[in-house]
Design a protein that fits this description.
With about 400 residues, this protein is mainly α. Among the domains are: about 80-205, Tetracycline Repressor, domain 2 (Orthogonal Bundle); about 270-395, Tetracycline Repressor, domain 2 (Orthogonal Bundle), CATH 1.10.357. It is built from 18 helices and no strands. Helix 16 packs across helix 17 (about 360-380). It starts with about 30 loop residues before the first helix and ends with a helix.
Length: about 400
């Protein structure tokens, strides 16, 4: 995504002339090399995912050898942990300098940090599965502390909010603040800040969130697919979601599905074929849900609510392929990636068209809304489905015509 971050500052300060071209330059080892490595690693992990990033690639981007990189970090797992911790600590350091009781000030600080650093904080929660349990707990605590700062500021301004409600709103606002780094919609910097500020006002002033119905126990069944292909796909969805595509083998999938290794390749020629089948099903699930929602709607507002409900249901379904769709598309062959991205773009286009306002602002709002739904369900807030959907509908309403 391209964001205009120029503030008109001259390249050289008037009272400090630029170094003459004839002055020889010395190549010095920067004192902040470790911080530089972490910054590059954070960008690469956020953009490509843990398993698609190599220590050699990070070293090359920094301009050092792999051996030099290993002198700073013993392995990629530790580098991921440090990248996650550094992101949270950097944000918290900024939040320490602003008024903790003013939610708008806190939110604006998050937005500016995200735009300045192309930061995708909440996406890292999925990557935490690659850490040791101790490091995972530590990294996730840092992210929770960031969202807690937002929640505390909201409760200071709105005593009517319960702690659980403020937690939902805190996560929602943090997700929205960092949403620009997750898509390619291009807006000038000031326009993006103004758009996110409007979304902030919608969330901050939302009425007390709807009460959730009592949770019903999920029925269990001993039935299984007679189709081995379906059994393999179901096992693969679970394993890819828990461990990531790169950490799972075809034998793992066969074992989880109860399918002998000798039979796996009768149904899928490779692990990439399994992934492609899962992602195709995920896209088709979204498409069918949207078609049904629009067919039964009696107004634009009803259609938006139905589409949001359809998407949220798809995300939180126990056998959902949506998380795989979000996280693992980059592992497909190039041609399959292209077709998957086209399907996803067409799905987003339907949301934007539904608003009746096919502008870049509307598209960025749709993408922020979908990111928020993804994040709130990913951090185990799916039990607040009614509240999440209510927020999503309110946010989308800012762009309806």
């Amino acid at each position: 995504m391209t964001i205009d971050t120029s503030d008109g500052t001259p390249a050289a300060s008037p009272d400090r002339p630029a170094t003459p071209k004839t002055t020889p330059k010395k190549t010095l080892r920067p004192r902040n090399r470790k911080a530089q490595i972490i910054t590059v690693a954070r960008e690469q992990f956020g953009r490509s995912g843990y398993h698609n990033v190599s220590m050699e690639g990070i070293a090359s981007a920094v301009g050092i050898t792999a051996g030099a990189l290993y002198r700073h970090f013993p392995n990629k797992q530790e580098l991921l942990a440090q990248a996650m911790l550094d992101g949270s600590s950097s944000i918290l350091a900024i939040l320490d300098e602003v008024d903790r009781t003013d939610s708008k000030v806190v939110f604006t600080a998050l937005v500016r940090y995200g735009l300045d650093n192309n930061f995708r904080s909440l996406l890292f929660d999925q990557e935490a599965r690659n850490l040791t349990p101790e490091r995972r707990t530590e990294a996730r605590a840092g992210v929770r502390e960031v969202t807690s700062r937002v929640a505390v500021a909201l409760r200071h301004e709105r005593p009517d909010l319960s702690v659980p409600d403020s937690v939902v709103l805190g996560w929602a606002l943090t997700s929205i603040a960092f949403s620009p780094a997750r898509h390619r919609t291009t807006l000038p910097r000031k326009r993006f800040e103004a758009l996110l500020a409007r979304l902030f006002d919608v969330v901050r002033t939302a009425p007390v969130l709807p009460e959730e119905p009592a949770a019903q126990p999920q029925p269990t069944s001993n039935f299984s697919h007679t189709s081995r292909r379906e059994s393999l796909m179901g096992a693969a969805i679970t394993l890819f979601d828990q461990r990531g595509y790169r950490s799972v083998t075809m034998d793992d999938i066969g074992s989880a599905a109860g399918v002998p290794s000798s039979s796996i390749y009768t149904h899928f020629g490779s692990k990439a074929e399994v992934l492609q089948a899962i992602l195709a099903r995920g896209n088709e699930t979204l498409r069918l849900g949207l078609v049904q929602a629009l067919r039964n709607a009696d107004s634009r507002e009803d259609a938006i609510a139905r589409v949001v409900h359809s998407y949220t249901n798809s995300v939180i379904s126990p056998d959902s392929a949506i998380a795989i769709l979000i996280e693992e598309t980059a592992n497909l062959p190039e041609e399959a990636q292209a077709s998957t991205h086209i399907a996803q773009r067409e799905y987003i286009d339907e949301w934007v068209h539904l608003l009746g306002n096919e502008t870049a602002d509307a598209r960025a709002t749709v993408l922020a809304t979908i990111s928020m739904i993804n994040d709130l369900t990913r951090v185990r807030l799916e039990s607040r489905q009614c509240a999440i959907e209510d927020l999503a509908v309110r946010i989308l309403a800012t762009q309806t015509v």
